[in-house]
Amino acid sequence: xxxxxxxxxxxxxxxxxxxxxxxxxxxxxxxxxxxxxxxxxxxxxxxxxxxxxxxxxxxxxxxxxxxxxxxxxxxxxxxxxxxxxxxxxxxxxxxxxxxxxxxxxxxxxxxxxxxxxxxxxxxxxxxxxxxxxxxxxxxxxxxxxxxxxxxxxxxxxxxxxxxxxxxxxxxxxxxxxxxxxxxxxxxxxxxxxxx
Amino acid sequence: xxxxxxxxxxxxxxxxxxxxxxxxxxxxxxxxxxxxxxxxxxxxxxxxxxxxxxxxxxxxxxxxxxxxxxxxxxxxxxxxxxxxxxxxxxxxxxxxxxxxxxxxxxxxxxxxxxxxxxxxxxxxxxxxxxxxxxxxxxxxxxxxxxxxxxxxxxxxxxxxxxxxxxxxxxxxxxxxxxxxxxxxxxxxxxxxxxxxxxx
Lengths: 195, 199
What we know:
The complex is a heterodimer. By secondary structure, chain A is mostly helical. Chain A contains nine helices and no strands. Chain A has one domain. The two termini of chain A are 13 Å apart. The two termini of chain B are 30 Å apart.
């Protein structure tokens, strides 16, 4: 991969095809943990970490196990199992090796298994026909895009607390309307074309 | 029979998975760009929900507590793969337009939540009915959202023009922004209605 290709893959994953605002992947944790800035940071770091690892591991499984055995139709089952195991494994390693990081990310890790962005990125990597490095990079930049979205959203949401809006919009509805406005801003990036 | 209707009502209205429990948002917003997509996704998810609830309920006495989530995920992923292959074979166009979101039914929180909250504690028949009720609730939400979005964003319903030639489609309703916006407003209306009933 040339530098331009790497750059364009990253910009595409972070801005042009942002996982949350354009692809609708990972909306549940996005809406769930974005009430406070510090939980948003913890969750997004955990997502970046797991998405990068999951991209690498699922790519290896797909290329060296599923394709030679002609079991591509078992992709969904294999990937979700790999991701679930990976998340458990990461949790155990973190407890042993980096207890401080585990303290920070611990409670978010189990939630990530059912984050559709992780399974989504694994399937997208295969559909796009990326190589191992490309997959890892796409997973990483997808995670960074998730982080960007959730941090922007959390900082807006902290301010909404003090705003005056119709009572029936309390809670989720106002968050969704905010997300709509943010995604409108992200649509501006659609015009970016990188070669 | 009475309890059957009660369970159905519970799934569709009182405890609607999207509008009241607020789970399973990603597919709801992503596929509701047209009514056909919405109905297709709803039926696919309902089929998976009924089957997975029934099987998980059958296995509930022999599933070790510690690895139950892993067992649920394998069961669900198995059924999703079946639905995915069936749709590729019989409804290729629909399968193409739903794309990534069919395999992603695996990580739809509604299915795992019903397995954990209901099927692991109740008998097979009731679990299957619960799956049907929750699936219909999901389909119901999808239908509302996709009807609104298709009419405003495209001027059509199920592909038929209903607003006349003079109508300028508001393209934004089909884009992701419209998904967030419509769902937000629908939930707000739902909250307004329920709070009135309570008062």
